[in-house]
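2 proteins. here.
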Amino acid sequence: MSLPETKRVNSAMLQNCIGEPVRFIGEFKSRQDTMATFLSSDKGLVTVAMNENSLYGTKFVEVIGNVNPDRSIAEWTSSNFGDDFDMETYDAMIVKAQKFPSVF
């Protein structure tokens, strides 16, 4: 599956990305039916509408999908990112990437 270009986002950035494809990394917190909750790099909670192939096997997961009007993410695909990921550094990087997109 070929994916479109995506922005890396945290929870606060989702409101500016309604209807757009995004790339999100979060700490998996819980699942209820087909909805998953993640803790974002900026400490906000993000809801993901999982696809039928979702297998979150590690503490940190990258989700690529489209932002819904309620700021949840409709997952297209996901990747496990392991159990040790520096969310603070990652958040600083995505904030810089928004300010200086030509560098990233």
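next one coming up
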Amino acid sequence: MEDKQSFEVEEVRRPPYSDVIPLDFAITNTGSLTPKGGSGKYTVRWNNGIIPFTGTYAVPNTDYDNFAIDIECQEFFGFLRRISATILSRNPEMDDAKLGELLDELSTQFEIPRNRMNAVDQTNCVEMEANDFRFIVDENGIRSALKDLKKIEYLSKLSP
């Protein structure tokens, strides 16, 4: 890390089409968070080996025990804007009244339309250790994951 106050972060996702592929895998984006101004605000930098994406990351609301809201705003090429937010819960289920309150907060304070919000189905989650492959996108780009492609090629030859 360039800045001693920065720390590394990972964003792990399963691709939306992973339920039709006979392999369990995850895609991990690596980046860094650097404190920016007040409490809970950071500059985020996602590395992809070509054009690193930067933006603002914040945790505007949390009770530290049950939930947190995180929000990320990125600008691309000076005119495209992307905003995303997540309501995180330490439990698989959240009280409906509390969830409604947090959705309203995202809608009113951050102008995220309610019809653009959706729930993430976590019923078929796979533990990281159980994944067949873990593709990592970092400052070296996808090259850091290419070694796993030989495993995929080998497994594809085994299937009928």
